[in-house]
């Protein structure tokens, strides 16, 4: 099944927070993800201000309606698409300073792929394409960074119960922490970055404290030219077409 999915084509298409269908689909996916659905309204404001850049991982269809990404105009295609997840880029200058990262560092946030399609290669391919996007104008980043749940907690019984059991999902036979998953793609823990905690409110009102670590990865020094030729280029409408590994 995974190999069949891996041969499909998907796009990264900008999220349009002012379109009601886009907005509601983002909210629904955050509910399915299990946390931060209460931040979607804030994300809308941040996207419109040009501080955050959300992309659908696309596969009921939506329409491509975005006319501007950040401050850059974009020709929208108007075609329909089916989002199977989302991912975002965010400028966080304070963290760049705190961790002594280059000021052009951009942060990858909020990666989500539909539970039914996880382990099919979609997340890894979306990451590769977002890195390519981050290295290109208008972002021109030399480093990408992210935070993720700490390895030992991710593999703990407490977290596995929260991640799978409470949703009625079957636990995978082989569970890999997101920290190790990112490490397999070249991400390294940022030196001297202390573990932080994010708070997540469960449906019953209880609060879960999630320990997170900070990771980063250097992008090719000469940008897109150093990427393997099999990677596609930016399309004229500002989206990326990618093949799933």
Automatic annotation (TrEMBL):
InterPro entries: Acyl_CoA_acyltransferase (IPR016181). Gene3D superfamilies: 3.40.630.30. This is Uncharacterized protein. It comes from Clonostachys chloroleuca.
């Amino acid at each position: 099944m995974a190999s069949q999915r891996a041969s499909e084509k998907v796009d990264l298409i900008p999220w349009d927070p002012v379109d009601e269908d886009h907005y509601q689909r983002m909210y629904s996916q955050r509910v399915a993800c299990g946390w931060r659905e209460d931040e979607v309204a804030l994300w809308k404001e941040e996207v419109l201000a040009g501080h955050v850049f959300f992309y659908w991982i696309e596969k009921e269809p939506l329409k491509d309606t975005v006319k501007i990404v950040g401050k850059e105009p974009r020709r929208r295609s108007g075609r329909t698409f089916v989002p199977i997840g989302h991912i975002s880029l965010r400028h966080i200058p304070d963290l760049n300073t705190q961790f002594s990262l280059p000021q052009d560092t951009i942060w990858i946030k909020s990666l989500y792929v539909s539970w039914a399609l996880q382990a099919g290669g979609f997340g890894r391919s979306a990451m590769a394409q977002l890195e390519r996007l981050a290295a290109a104008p208008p972002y021109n980043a030399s480093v990408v960074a992210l935070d993720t749940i700490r390895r030992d907690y991710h593999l703990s019984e407490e977290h596995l119960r929260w991640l799978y059991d409470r949703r009625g999902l079957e636990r995978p036979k082989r569970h890999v922490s997101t920290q190790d998953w990112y490490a397999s793609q070249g991400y390294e823990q940022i030196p001297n970055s202390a573990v932080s905690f994010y708070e997540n409110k469960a449906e019953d009102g209880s609060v879960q404290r999630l320990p997170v670590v900070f990771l980063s990865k250097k992008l090719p020094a000469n940008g897109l030219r150093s990427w393997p030729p099999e990677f596609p280029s930016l399309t004229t409408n500002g989206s990326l077409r990618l093949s799933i590994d």
